[in-house]
Design goal:
- The complex is a heterodimer of chains A (193) and B (568).
- Chain A is an all-alpha fold and 193 residues long.
- Chain A has a single domain (26-47, 64-192), classed as Four Helix Bundle (Hemerythrin (Met), subunit A), CATH 1.20.120.80.
- Chain A has five helices and no strands.
- Chain A has helices at 20-49, 65-86, 91-121, 130-161, 167-192.
- Chain B is an all-alpha fold and 568 residues long.
- Chain B has a single domain, classed as Cytochrome C Oxidase, Chain A, CATH 1.20.210.
- Chain B has helices at 5-8, 22-27, 32-62, 76-111, 120-139, 162-165, 170-198, 211-242, 256-290, 297-310, 326-338, 340-354, 363-386, 388-394, 398-428, 434-460, 479-512.
- In chain B, helix 4 crosses helix 9, helix 4 runs parallel beside helix 15 (398-428) and helix 13 runs antiparallel to helix 15.
- In chain B, 56% of the residues are buried.
- Classes of the chains: A mainly alpha (193), B mainly alpha (568).
- Chains A and B meet through helix 1 and helix 4 of A and helix 7, helix 8 and helix 9 of B.
């Protein structure tokens, strides 16, 4: 039993388990995962309640599975590039990898924009059916996340080349990009296949 | 490790204290205490607005067809807009900002011995987005067609099509306001959890964290887990309203019940999101005013985590009559009744804490005890509604209204008053007038029961809610039922009449109250170990922590309290 008179030794605090930047980003990604979980369960619920043979509705065009799968490879490759940039390496090498990642991400987003334009032109729109609404909302939400992540990566790239990008902040940016990349195969499976 | 991590995050630490301008101090501050006060005062203002709405529609229910003093004639559309926005304002713009944002911002850094949040600028942005959301909600009353009147649950198709709800702009503004408000609390919640994780004082281990901080952190995590699906639903509903998509339109392959699932997946955890902080305040208050250790600290902690997890599996009890499969209804009945176990456990733990203590009936203690008693009524009546068979009868009656007011009023009003009266000396360095506070406490608590006990009886006799004028329904407009409506409304008038006592006391004491000193309640937690009000940067020397927060009446000491940061 400690006696009240003896002062206890001063406690020492070790480094944090996870830096604040990374921890904050993980919570944000968690909330984002739940957002997409909401979209996906809505999509599945409406699909499950549709009469047999009516989901997707017969009038809707077939979604371009093969070309989208090809574009997905660009997105996955950019995820690999960002992972590469995060490895311990020279700042120049990290910058090059990040640049490649941004270009690959832009290829993917560019493909999505072109694909949306083509589908809209043949009459498949947000309002043409509930299926169309889900398609553009879910895939569009992912595309918006990809765009915002590309902007964030570009900003990180600039800071990195100035030498002003702290490692925890860079780690947080990478986590956000991994989220965007890894979310995509899930959405692709649910919506396209 | 020469320097703790908390110290490393110092955007405005002790090093520079250049004088700030008036605008920067009150409107552009990144100081967690100022942001907390911004949230608190905005929440109180919105509380007055929400109370005014309640006054107008309760007057209409008691005296249908007569002009309401201070408003005028109430039309059906007015009535709908008032009940809708009363619910929305009280939950999203009063309970959330005051209980979580204001107290979370104020208490977390002080209670864990940090100088500020880890992301102060994110914190400032959070309040600014919240303010914009409140302004948008207010603006929705002044657009063509008036404010949204489809209930705070905003069920489609009523909320989705202007030809049904006759308010072309109101529903969209309402949804945008709610969505922005969620973004504000997401930013706030990230801050709370990260700060509590990384910025704690040296020596503060997981079980040395005061219960109020734990509860706010758990509530924030629950909020972040539940809000995503609702934002997804809000985007889809907004598209249905503005673009004409068919997510919730059965004609076009959509499903209106989908909204109910997405809404209540958020909506039910939300009850516990606001409940837990209030439970945390009560834990702080009853330990201080019974001079006892919190009974079963770890049990309370694990119980609140359990409540949080379980609350994600009860949402469909709001939909028992929405045509869901009866087998699913059974499952949700069981989970709903199960969740009363952890809540009952918390109440028992608090009662056990009181047992054998030397109790002081100070104003915060009165509020805390009232919280336990009144919330118990709300919890027990919830069992009737959780049982799917009984719910078929009670659904959409005033029994439901009385039930959830017996949960939300203790949380958002009683819990808030407990928190404000307890921490006021810390916030402003002065005491509130005790006699005025006691008068306010008794009138408010008694009048609250006077409002809602008649509504239980009305609901059990089949009184359907959301009816604007009962004179059109002779079987619901009997003299006995009307007398109970009048009784409830008069009780509301009494309750409202008591609130200026508090408001005058609050603002008067802020400037003219008796000086409080750093630790007027002889409490252990760290916020009482710094000056009142705490300066920018909070502590003169950032504290170290040597023990848990509830070491009261230790036999080893002359004092009956033992501050967490005292080395001996």
């Amino acid at each position: 039993m400690t006696t009240a008179a003896l002062p206890l030794p001063k406690p020492v605090k070790g480094p944090p388990l996870v830096t604040s930047e990374v921890f904050g980003m993980l919570i944000w990604v968690f909330a984002e995962v739940m957002l997409f979980a909401g979209f996906i369960s809505g999509y599945n619920l409406v699909g499950a309640r549709a009469p047999a043979g009516w989901w997707p509705p017969p009038g809707d065009p077939a979604l371009p599975v093969a070309s989208t799968a090809a574009a997905s490879l660009a997105l996955l490759a950019s995820g690999v590039a960002v992972w590469w940039a995060g490895r311990p390496a020279s700042r120049a090498a990290a910058g090059r990898a990040l640049g490649i990642a941004v270009v690959l991400a832009l290829v993917f987003v560019g493909y999505q924009v072109a694909e949306f334009a083509r589908l809209l032109a043949i009459g498949f729109t947000l309002v043409s059916s509930a299926h169309g609404g889900f398609f553009y909302t879910i895939i569009g939400a992912h595309a918006l996340h990809a765009v915002s992540a590309v902007v964030a990566l570009g900003w990180g790239w600039r800071k990195l080349s100035n030498g002003a990008l702290s490692e925890p902040l860079f780690a947080a940016l990478r986590i956000y990009w991994f989220f965007v990349v890894l979310l995509w195969p899930v959405l692709f499976t649910v919506v396209y296949l | 490790m020469a320097e703790s991590h908390a110290h490393a995050h110092e955007p405005h630490g002790h090093a520079h204290h250049e004088p700030e301008g008036w605008f920067k101090h009150y409107f552009w501050s990144t100081d967690h205490k100022m942001i907390a006060k911004q949230y608190l005062l905005t929440g109180m203002l919105m509380g007055v607005v929400g109370a005014y709405f309640a006054y107008v529609f309760r007057m209409q229910l008691a005296f249908p067809g007569k002009p309401v003093p201070g408003y005028g004639m109430v039309t059906g559309a007015d009535y709908n807009a008032l009940i809708t926005n009363h619910g929305a304002v009280m939950i999203f713009w009063v309970a959330m900002p005051v209980l979580i944002a204001a107290f979370g911002n104020y208490l977390i850094p002080l209670m864990i011995g940090a100088d500020d949040m880890v992301f102060p600028r994110l914190n400032r942005l959070s309040y600014q987005i919240f303010l914009v959301s409140a302004i948008i909600l207010g603006a929705s009353f002044f657009v063509q067609g008036g404010a949204f009147g489809g209930a705070w649950t905003s069920y489609p198709p009523l909320s989705a099509k202007a030809e049904y709800n006759l308010t072309p702009l109101g529903p969209s503004l309402w949804l945008i306001a709610v969505a922005l408000e969620f973004v504000a609390f997401l930013l706030g919640g990230i801050n709370f959890v990260t700060t509590a994780m990384n910025a704690r004082a040296p020596g503060m281990k997981a079980f040395d964290i005061p219960m109020a901080v734990w509860m706010i952190v758990i509530a924030s995590i629950m909020f972040m887990a539940s809000v995503g699906p609702l934002v997804a639903g809000a985007v889809m509903l907004l598209f249905d309203q503005l673009i004409g998509t068919g997510f919730f339109d059965p004609d076009r392959g959509g499903d209106p019940v989908l909204w109910q699932h997405l809404f209540w997946f958020f909506g039910h955890p939300e009850v516990y999101v606001v409940l837990l902080p209030a439970m945390g305040f009560v834990a702080e208050i009853i330990t201080v005013f019974s001079r006892k250790k919190l009974f079963a600290y770890k049990t309370v902690l694990y119980t609140s985590i359990g409540t949080g997890v379980l609350s994600f599996f009860v949402w469909a009890h709001h939909q028992f009559i929405a045509g869901i499969d009866p087998r699913m209804a059974n499952v949700f009945s069981v989970t709903t009744v199960l969740i009363s176990i952890p809540i009952a456990e918390m109440c028992f733990v608090y009662i056990a804490t009181l047992y054998g203590g030397s109790i002081t009936f100070s104003v915060p203690m009165l509020w805390a005890l009232a919280f336990i008693g009144e919330f118990l009524v709300g919890g027990v009546t919830g069992i009737f509604l959780g049982a799917s068979g009984a719910d078929i009868y009670f659904h959409d009656t005033y029994f439901v209204v009385a039930h959830f007011h017996y949960t939300f009023f203790p949380i958002a009003i009683i819990g808030t008053f407990a928190g404000i009266t307890y921490w006021f000396p810390k916030m402003y360095g002065r005491h509130m007038n005790e006699l005025a506070n006691k008068v306010h406490f008794w009138i408010t608590t008694v009048a609250f029961n006077g409002i809602f006990i008649p509504l239980f009886i009305l609901g059990a006799s089949g009184d359907h809610r959301r009816i604007f004028d009962y004179s059109n329904f002779p079987e619901l407009a009997t003299p006995e039922m009307q007398a109970m409506r009048v009784f409830a409304t008069v009780s509301l008038l009494v309750l409202l009449a008591a609130q200026p006592i508090f408001l005058v006391n609050f603002f008067y004491s802020m400037f003219k109250g008796k000086q409080a000193g750093a630790n007027p309640w002889n409490a252990n937690t760290l916020e009482w170990q710094c000056p009142s009000p705490p300066p920018h940067g909070n502590f003169d020397v950032l504290p170290d922590v040597y023990r848990g927060p509830y070491e009261y009446s230790s036999p080893d000491r002359a004092d009956d309290f033992w501050p967490q940061n005292s080395p001996s």
